[in-house]
UniProtKB/TrEMBL annotation:
Stated family: Belongs to the peptidase S10 family.
Primary location class: secreted
Organism from which the protein derives: Trema orientale
Protein name as catalogued: Carboxypeptidase
One Pfam family per UniProt: Peptidase_S10
SUPFAM superfamilies (alphabetical): alpha/beta-Hydrolases
InterPro entries named in the record: AB_hydrolase_fold, Peptidase_S10, Ser_caboxypep_his_AS, Ser_caboxypep_ser_AS
Enzyme class: hydrolase
GO cellular component: extracellular region
GO BP annotation list: proteolysis
Lineage, highest ranks first: Eukaryota, Viridiplantae, Streptophyta, Embryophyta, Tracheophyta
Amino acid sequence: MESTSPNHLLILLLLLFFLFFFHCKPTLSISLLPKQALPTKSGYLPVTPTSDSAIFYLFYEAQKPTSPLSQTPLLIWLQGGPGCSSMIGNFLELGPWRVNFRKTPDQPLALEPNPGSWNRIFGLLFLDNPIGTGFSIASKPEEIPRDQTHVARHLFAAITAFIDSDPSFKSRPIYITGESYAGKYAPAIGYHILENPGRVNLTGVAIGNGLTDPAIQVATHAANAYFSGLVNERQKVELERLQSEAVALTEAGNWSAAVAARGRVLQTLQNVTGLATLYDFTRKAPYKDDLVEELLRNDDVKSALGAKRHVVFEVCSDLVDEVLHEDVMKSAKYMVERLVKESRVLLYQGHLDLRDGVVSTEAWVRTLKWEGIEGFLGAEREVWRVNGELAGYVQRWGSLTNAVVLGAGHLVPTDQALNSQAMIEDWVLGKGLFGSAQKENFTTNSLGPMSM
């Protein structure tokens, strides 16, 4: 046998080093997304047969279903914005694995199991909506929807394509859920489904901290901040003046100017309070959605999720926000009015949210044109506990339920994971305080609709 020279040995060691390095590099990178965190299905759903535009989706099957999968409820999550990715909902709020958002700056980014995931007993589908948002594809900027009617058409195409991909999906009860600007997306797609029966087994719609009737909601900020002790009387009067401008411009149909006026209300409120974020007035820093962006700009993570490698992920798209600019102050309340008559509706708010929180929601709900509104307004607001601890308050009548979640801001599942999980599960299953409202809760002394 020939002996190995020192030079040959050195070359051999170098080869072994490079083989080891390049073999391990992808493994180190993909460790950001553990195998257990991979979705059941993912990819793209077409929105029109004449274009390559498509909505990106991630689907997680129920971890511990309590019924056959063909009967297991399916939740569809829509983020707000407009133009913010539902990957925020997935990796920061209610998905099975979340970024370690409590980490210190010197700690590495990582994913952690979420004990409050909404797919514990339900299927969970995240959609990046509208096209151009997150990983979704807009072949041309002009294909991005400019109003809720077109948003709903695209969502309907994507949802029906997803349902058609597996026969077992066709019989599953479907619940549309979402937060913030999805206070319009969710009613829009729910309304569209009711207009096109037979394709989607819609059972309910849940809206968290939603912007649904902007003109009514913008008029609540001054009083809310004042009675929270965050502004004085003079500042309250100034906010009221700005609010009146936003309402007047909305009523005149001057949509772009109305959006700008609402922006002045929120910016003034931000300036005079000095808060880190209006989304939660107790926070010392904003929510860390930048960690989701960092995670999803990793090429190996993108590949593992089935996203197009050429798409540069942004948590929120400025382009989509700009395209939907004139939609912002338009109301979706009439869609909720139909949904509450023909399905079930859950509204929930984190009580620390100053933008689209409790007072804001109650103001527009009082004006609903629905035969059950007097019953709802007269119903008891009951103390809600989870595992014996105070979680918030629940008010319900017939098909409408409203929940206030204590200790939570705009992103309720981020702040109160287990309580938000208990809320959505009990509402879907009709359990506890989220079960059928009792008519004896109604009192004839209820206040009528609030004049705004």
